[in-house]
Amino acid sequence: MRGAQEEFLQYLKSVRGASQHTLRAYRKDLGQLLDFLSGNDEVNSWEDVSDAHLRRFLGNLSERGKAQTSLARKLSCFRSFFTYLCQHKGLPLNPTVGLVSPRLPRRLPQFLDPGEIEKLLAAPPKDIPLGLRDRAILEMLYSTGLRVSELVSLSLNQIQGQAELHVRGKRDKERVVFLGAPAIEALDNYLRIGRQALAKGGKKSERTGKGKDEAVFLNRRGGRLTDRSVRRILHKYIMLTCARHGLSPHSLRHTFATHLLEGGADLRVIQELLGHSSLSTTQIYTHTSLRHLKEVYSRTHPRA
Tens digit of pLDDT per residue, the chain (304 long)? Predict the structure, then answer.
């Protein structure tokens, strides 16, 4: 049974282009299910697994206080796994058919208003290498709507002299994003001054090597910056400017999309810029723009 699990994960990686984050989550979910099934003498293969087994597994997790979002993710994993077994391994019946995902509360994304984003982008100092780097990071996140994982994976050959970037996002999907003039200026200043200083200051063993995979954003030791480091950087400047808790680098992606929508951009265009596979994922921003619609109505309607 574990062999089929590993084949499924390899299929997700090589054929579906799943991210390392997705692979780790699916491995964990399927491992937990296998541990649960190992105590059942009725189950000797995946053909023996029924919807009742899956219901009991998810029910046990719910009784132990697992969040509805966690249960929904596990069920999504099981659906993908058993669909794979049916299509590629001859499994006669899919036990996930008929199982209903728990209803999840729809959380609206947090974003910054134009005044807050201006203060945030102006916060990093311009006279030190780390400040130049941080300013370039914030400008690029807001200008492009990149995911933080896409930002830290950028290499020099992708960005030098470019006003547009070709990036690979989830499921290895390629898209084009654009750099506004402030982002281009901040990035140019960082590459000319800040990055060179960080690269020289790093230990030889920690510097990124020369060539096409040389990292754009470096830490103080000269190595490639990580997702976690970008989160710490953003938190520091958020606390300095607007002191709002719960914001993350993804909040700048939400801000990017919300400001585009409020500025009149078409939802399909925003979908392409964000790299969403489904328009339904992008439609959450129509809710956040209701505030803008109300403001326009109040300002323009004679009887508002």
Answer: 888 899 999 998 888 877 788 889 999 999 999 998 887 778 888 988 888 899 999 888 888 888 888 888 899 999 999 999 999 988 898 999 888 877 766 666 788 888 899 999 999 999 999 999 999 999 999 999 998 888 998 988 888 667 888 888 776 778 888 899 999 999 999 999 999 999 886 654 344 444 445 899 999 888 999 989 998 998 899 888 887 777 788 888 889 988 888 888 888 888 888 888 777 777 777 766 666 677 777 878 787 6
Q: Which secondary structure element, helix H or strand E, spans residue 176, and what is its range?
A: strand 174-178
Question: Choosing from 74, 135, 253, 259, which is the catalytic residue?
Answer: 253
CATH value at residue 220:
1.10.443.10
| Catalytic residue of the set 195, 224, 259, 276 | 276
21 included as an active-site residue:
no
Catalytic residue among 27, 53, 170, 231: 170
pTM of the model as a whole: 0.67
**Residue 253 annotated among the catalytic residues of the structure:** yes
Q: How far is CA 211 from the centre of its chain?
A: 27
Residues 132 and 171 in one domain: yes
Of the listed 73, 220, 235, 250, which one is catalytic?
A: 250
SS3 percent helix, strand, coil of the chain, rounded to 5, is: 60, 5, 35
Which structural domain, as residue segments, surrounds residue 39? 2-88
Residue 207 annotated as catalytic? no
HSE (side-chain half, CA atoms, 13 Å) at 259: 18
The number of domains in the chain is 2
142 is catalytic: no
d(CA 40, CA 34): 10
- The catalytic residue among 74, 133, 135, 147 is 147
Q: Kindly state the tokens that stand for 99.
A: 């199982």
Tell me, yes or no, if 250 is annotated catalytic.
Answer: yes
